[in-house]
Design brief:
Pathway: Protein modification; protein glycosylation. It comes from Polarella glacialis. This protein is of the alpha/beta class and 551 residues long. The chain contains 15 helices and 19 strands. The protein has 3 domains: 33-71 and 103-349, Spore Coat Polysaccharide Biosynthesis Protein SpsA, Chain A (Alpha-Beta Complex); 351-447, no CATH class; 456-550, no CATH class. Strand 2, helix 5 and strand 3 (164-168) form a beta-alpha-beta unit.
Length: 551
Amino acid sequence: MLLGLILLGFLLALVKLYLVISGESLAGSLDSASGSVQKQLRLAHSLAVAGSTVTVEPASHVIITDSNLHLDRSTAGVADRVSEGIGARPDGLADVASLELLAKGRAAVVIIAHDRTDCLERCLKSLVAQPDAGVFSLVVSLDDPKSFEKMEAVVDRFREQQPFAVWRKPSEPDLKGGAVAKIGAHFRFALSQSFDEAGHEFAIFIENDLTLAPDFLWYFRLTAPLLEKDPSLFCVSAWHDNGFRELVSDERRLFRTDYFPGLGWMIRKDTWASIRGIWPRFPSTGWDHWLRHGSGLRPRDCIAPEVPRTHHEDEQGTNVRTGSEIAKLLARMATSTLPHGQLGDVSYLLNDRYEAHLHGILKDAPVLSGLAQLDSIAGPDSDAERYYILPYVREDFKLFAKRLLLYPGQPRAARKGLVLSRLPHSPKVWVALVDRRQGQGLLPEAERWQPRPGQQLLAAQPGESCDGACQRLGALRCEARQLEFANSCGALRGFFACEEGCGHQVGSEIPAYVHDRSRDTALQCLVTDEAAPTCAAKHPSTSRLCVCVPA
């Protein structure tokens, strides 16, 4: 009898340890497991009706597996310390219970795959090696009927290590727009299956040409609660567009950006619900650009790591080809080697704390007059980090990106026009690029570009330049530097119907509305984050949105 009581006490202690680690109550744990089984069964039924295949392993969502105990072993002996900040970060786990790690049965990991068996095999190999793989429902989503059998054969080789479901996207023979449209349609399918059919609360999406850093899933488990607690966030991404080896070094530092990074990302079900009805049929420059500009999710942010948690492997895809400029950029990217469980408290990323610290480190930072001054601040390394502010405008960003070795084209990894990056090869020197039109409250008034008093927004006639439109009103003229103030979906919707939504394009006549119904972007409003709009530009298929100032 006594021995039985001792054994019972030992078992209860083990259960308590597990619950502390997972951040759940016993009732919540059992309810979550039961709910997960029901969701898997609903998914199996829905996919059977659709003619797809699915592997259902209900028991795997009830049994407490050893993978859930990695937290205790991997963090043993790590000192508990929480430090706030952008340049600063935590070294260890401060309070495991307070982190509310994403628990088993709440989220899916979905691999987006087409027809490349070699890519899929590499991706699956790195996924099943993750200590936290058993916490998630694992899925491979396929969209090429001719390749279903060979791709599923690859998945079968990994099913002994982890249970995988396979989703088969129905073909859309009438879909127009080539590979870009097909990729967008596949993501829409995978999003709908994850949230509408399977009923997951969270889902992580990975293209199959990516491999994963050692703490990839731990990173998402740790940051998922931020999406629940902070309404100013909509996603967590494993990618950093400026994560080049010359610029990054701190594998524990995370930051906020309003430029959607992609390449391994997580959202909640409510975010999908907000964009499901407006997902574009033809995102002409890609679904990811639409998500940044046309989805309405801005000004909400994403969490991103300084050192990426994914690595791009393939150079034979739709967007990345051997020898291309983007392939050369990706070859420079760093990938984190931080072990599982070493990333610590992330509460410093909550909006109020993040804003306060950002303002604190930059409010007294010297303002540089231009790129030429960068050479003077690159001195020898010191123990203290130094911060400098460098004003820029989007039209000239390529010059700044070239000098600072940033991603060219547009200000990626920015937040409210602010790009914070290390000076190349100078890990203690930080340069804060601050958009003159947004200012972040950091620029002196003399350094800011603001709307001119008396300026007016005007919808030009079809095919008309802004020079012509402003002159037609009399006593007004177009001023090129003011056109950027009209370069937003919100501004365009105030003047045009935008029946097919708002999208992204490249052109000096943008922002504009496509009135020509023969164009693939017909009835869309278009914005740009690459080309610089000019007053003289015009296009026969578009109607411009102009900014006119007193002559």
